[in-house]
Amino acid sequence: MTLTEEPRTTETAQPEIGRARRRKEDARLITGRTTWTDNMVLPGMLHLSIVRSPVAHARIGSVDVSAAREAPGVVAVYSGRDFAEEQGSLPCAWPVTPDMVNPGHPSIAVEEVNHVGEAVAVIVARSKAAAADAVELVDVDYAVLPPVLDMEQASTQDTDLCHAHLESNTSFHFVFDAGDAGTGGDTDEAFSGADVVVSRRFVNQRLIPAFMEPRSVVVQPQGDNYTMWSATQIPHILRVMLAMVTGVPEHKLRVIAPDVGGGFGGKLQVTPEEVLALLVARRLGKPVKYTETRSESLMSAHHGRDQIQYVDVAADREGNVKGLRVRLLADMGAYLRLITPGTPALGAFMYPAIYKFPAYRFELKGIFTNKTPTDAYRGAGRPEATFAIERIMDELAVELGMDPLELRRKNWIKHDEFPFTMVAGLEYDSGNYEAATARALELIGYDELRAEQQRRRESGDPVQLGIGFSTFTEMCGIAPSRVLGSLSFGSGGWEHASIRMLPTGKVEVVTGATPHGQGHETAWSQLVADKLGVPFEDVEVLHGDTSISPKGLDTYGSRSLVVGGTAVVKAADKVVAKARKVAAHLLEASEDDLEFEGGKFSVRGTPGTGLSIQEVALAIFAAHNYPEDVEPSIDADATFDPVNFSFPHGTHICAMEVDTETGMVKIRKYACVDDVGTIVNPLIVEGQIHGGLAQGIAQALYEEAVYDADGNLTTGSFVDYLVPSAADLPHFDTDNTVTPSTSNPMGSKGVGEAGTIASTPAVVNAALDAVRHLGVTDIRMPLTPERVWRALQTGGDGGDRAAAGTTAYGGASTESTTGVSTPASNPGGIS
Amino acid sequence: MIPAAFAYARPTTVEEALQAIADGGEDVKVMAGGQSLIPVMRLRMAAPETVVDLVSVSEMRGVRDDGDALVVGAMTTHHDVLVDPLIAEHAPLLVQATETVADRQVRARGTFGGALAHADPAGDLAAVALALDAEMVIAGSGGRRTVPAADFFVDYLTTCLEEGELLVEVRIPKLRGEWGVRYEKFNRVAQAWSIVAVAAAVRRENGHIAEARIGLTNMGSTPLRAQATEAALAGADASAAAIAAAAERAAEGTSPTSDLNAQADYREHLARVLTRRAVSAAAGL
User: What's the average model confidence in pLDDT over A560-569?
Assistant: First the structure.
């Protein structure tokens, strides 16, 4: 290899942006031959296992660890009392009201356990097996307290308390009133004068993020320095927070998120296990590893959703919406984690969606229960809002006798009305709802489906057909730091990038947006290849290590491309500007006479002259000859703080078959057209949409975290927590319209959560459309066949499911890792 | 998800296997594919002293023609069942049901005999064995005995296998005459256990239903036959009305559980609907 490879010819080069490149990181990710945290092996490394509470609510009497300490291979066993003085409280970075009540969140329970799965003891052993074997030797004496499990009951006066030292189970009461904010009219007036008011109670069930790679953490002490590897979405935030929680100074702490196998918000957290691993490593001065089992992950990694939504909409007879009122109860679970309160509060700004409500009021109560804490899960507040508004728009359409799409058209923002300031105060930057809807109708074959629906109704076919819409938007590109400040969020929303030009002309891009499966390495390489005019293959993207990528705010909220990608682009612009000075010097020309195209500086009007940016990189490395007034480097960095969110939107249409004899629902067709602004890599966009749809459909049809009357997680394994596979999902007809965002120079809007946010209400609306003529007005999610059948038989929303798990595996739901087994879980004559 | 420590034996003959079981101590588990046993050991819901792995007992694998019956070795994998020409010809109901078992990976390792001896009422194959009047050939220290499927399944995860015994093969009588079959499985996602399933084999004669055998999956602590429906169908018209009327009795004598997929009354309803569908399809309607 020579140092001056021939730069590629520019005339024929295809732009990288817009190219459906296969992801460069996938080979190592899908073969597992990479740095998953659990693959880490360090000399002398010890292994942790965690003894977890099998009861939902109890005072801890004694914790007898003596037998476990004697077990083969065990080095140490700690209970909560051993760390009581130094563990601090896990952080909650989003106090949504000034008087929010935070009970504090120990990483390991000391006096009281407040949910099944809470850590009560930690075992340190020489092998993972030895650590697992000792778990059942720890004897914990629990004085059981009544569990608080029903959020509505818990929000009243007539309730037991989740935390005895608090006055109520209510953490906070958050209100946004557009009238008070000056962004809308008086809501009560709007309702009292309305022709039509429709009110509904929706249940947004509890979900489990169920990322593919279980959480794992390794800590290595080196003197008074600590390096932590963790399967986290947020190495940068984790470092700051760990320093605050444990007192290990920030500059003595290095956090590395190596390759991370999915998160969906579930790894947007500072976890008890991370803190415990650090405390144990500090105590023993030895490297330690903890990797959770899937059972532990389902039981104790944070959950998502779990809101009860009371929604009122007011309109006139012609279908013009007049007001929207939302009252939410949000289940916090037992504790406040990183953004537990902020997740439902973020929804405040999304309920009005794309509709021009003149008045709007939002009230939210955060309620404690003796369940696993909730926090961010793909969409985080926005799916809940979108579900409620898209469901109630259908209900309003029924009430008015209008076509549901016609009602939406009547009230949505027209494409020529952007930018548009919404009643919730946000300024929507761009969009074209008409175009996306027209294309989606075409994709799904709308008229034929309606005709078939009519035929099935007329013939009384046991299988009925329904069509459901979701014309959604979301706020992405989280976030303008000043806006986050106004919402009392504990951090800003900027992102950082730097670009290092290596002597051989290769390029290192350092990003603060840490990926966990999204394909940043590919997309960022495409951005930089275009900007610098270097081959895609010449770009390496570095991330996830606070020593390599010292500044960043990580990946969540569909922010990476919009905020982090923009920082990359801005850094690249600076590199070109610096290189231009050097090139002008070397070409003995004025900067103003230089053109930069296809990676090459050339003197205007002087064919044959020129210097590639990769050659400039070598020249400035040698630094034998460069301008007097610059430093010998063309490296650059940039920090981008957006001035506004971006607002992807789209139209999703679901056609659903409902077998009225069994209640089984089956998606017949699904079409969606998403406008995510400028698309850098269409393959990644399509993949994100597909995965997002799978998760949104899963909420509608399959997934629900169920607790029994004692507070045990019934859905404690994938036998009962149903995550659909490709075999359970339909073909997706997807397309895009492109209305560039005006919030960032690329015009991108974000795509990570779109499919999830949009699809859930489309699916439920479709099922209801199929059976509404049979008297069904609501079906609670997930739409289990039994619920659909019961709603058909007896009305209502299908009711509660039985809380017992299936008997497969002998009923794994009753199991916790303490080795507690019940007579029902004894698997008899298994062979 | 690490099992507790256990001793492991891998015999190569039935005789060695029986010896290994006898020598294995207090709590021996026989592993016949491990698709149920390994997960419960990993969850530490089972912690056997010894695991006797039958994977190398080659005499227990394969299908042979024995005149009026097929003989299926207990260690024949689900995959092998699916590709076996004898089973395709003489026991297509078993093929239909086996196609619905879990996923490709499980079917590659899981075995027919293992599934039957596990006796999970939500498992698909027990109801098929029952509907086909299969016979279980059991080896023990005192020799071999043969037990009809109807007597084999005793309770939830419990068979008539005594300590020290081994299910070695399953005899499936060939269906003679004009039979139609159908396995109707009802579940929420593809790889899941049946919420309810119905295995139906129907023999037609001169436009009538001469005989119907109906096995029910997950309608009680063991697989069951829908006896009232079978009786109502014997000699009935092969008509939609007659089948529908008979299927209304499919849940008689069942005692299904309630769990988060289905409460008992809904399971009973499903049994009726699925029986109607399975019998109709099997009868060629």
Answer: 97
pTM of the model: 0.95
Of the pLDDT bands very low, low, confident and very high (cuts 50, 70, 90), residue A826 is very low
CATH 2.40.160.20 fits B181-282, yes or no: no
Into which CATH architecture does domain B60-173 fall? 2-Layer Sandwich (3.30)
Q: Are the Cβ atoms of A829 and B159 closer than 8 angstroms?
A: yes
**CB–CB contact B37 A821 (8 Å):** no
Which residues on A lie below 8 Å from B189 (Cβ)? 702, 722-725, 727-728
Asked whether the beta carbons of B225 and B232 are under 8 A apart, the reply is no
Q: Is the pLDDT of residue A665 over 70?
A: yes
Q: How far is CA A142 from CA A81, B150, B176, in A?
A: 15, 46, 63
Cβ atoms A334, A371 nearer than 8 A = yes
Is residue A815's pLDDT more than 50?
no
Of B188, B193, B266, the CB nearest to A808: B193
Residue A820 has pLDDT above 70, yes or no: no
* Smallest Cα distance from B215 to chain A, Å: 19
Q: Which amino acid is at A469?
A: F
Contact B54, B30 (CB under 8 A): yes
Do residues B116 and B129 lie in contact, with contact meaning Cβ atoms separated by under 8 Å? yes
Is residue A415 included in any domain, yes or no?
A: no
Residue A81 has pLDDT above 60, yes or no: yes
Domain ranges of chain B: 7-53, 60-173, 181-282
A214 in any annotated domain: no
For the record, the structure tokens of A545 come out as 């290590």
**DSSP state letter for A170:** E
Q: Identify whether A351 is part of a domain.
A: no
pLDDT at A515: 96
d(CA A327, CA A366): 11
Tokens 């809380």 found at? A803
DSSP string, B211-279: EEEEEEESSSSS-EE-HHHHHHHTT-BSSHHHHHHHHTTTTTT-----BTTB-HHHHHHHHHHHHHHHH
- For A664, which residue in chain B has the nearest alpha carbon? B188
CA A177 to the chain's CA centroid: 27
Q: What is the pLDDT of residue A301?
A: 98
Instruction: Report yes or no: A53 at the B interface, CB cutoff 8 Å.
Output: no
Contact state of A809 with B37 under an 8 Å Cβ cutoff: no
HSE toward the beta carbon, residue A715, CA cutoff 13 A: 24
Residue A695's pLDDT band (cuts 50, 70, 90): very high
- CB-CB under 8 Å, B270 with A662: yes
What is the spatial distance between Cα A471 and Cα A618, in angstroms, rounded to a whole number? 52
For residue A716, list chain B residues with Cβ-Cβ distance below 8 A.
Answer: none
Helix (H/G/I), strand (E/B), else coil: A125: strand
**How many distinct structural domains can be found in chain A?**
1
Inter-chain contacts counted by CB atoms under 8 A, chains A and B: 133
- Compare CB distances from A829 to B44, B158, B191 and report the shortest one's residue: B158
Condensed to tens digits (0 to 9), the pLDDT of residues A332-366 reads 999 999 999 999 999 999 999 999 999 999 999 99
Q: Which residue of A has its CA nearest to B259?
A: A804
Residue A463 in contact with partner chain B when CB distance is under 8 A: no
B2, B46, B260 member nearest A720 (Cβ):
B260
CATH 3.30.43.10 fits B7-53, yes or no: yes
Q: Which of residues 260-319 of A touch B (CB under 8 A)?
A: 293-295
Structural domain range at position A628: 26-34+494-640
- Kindly tell me if the per-residue pLDDT of B83 is higher than 90: yes
CATH of the domain at A554: 3.30.365.10
Complex ipTM value: 0.97
Which chain A positions have a beta carbon within 8 Å of B157's beta carbon?
810, 827-830
Q: What is the pLDDT of residue A783?
A: 98
**Is A728 part of the contact surface with chain B (CB cutoff 8 Å)?**
yes
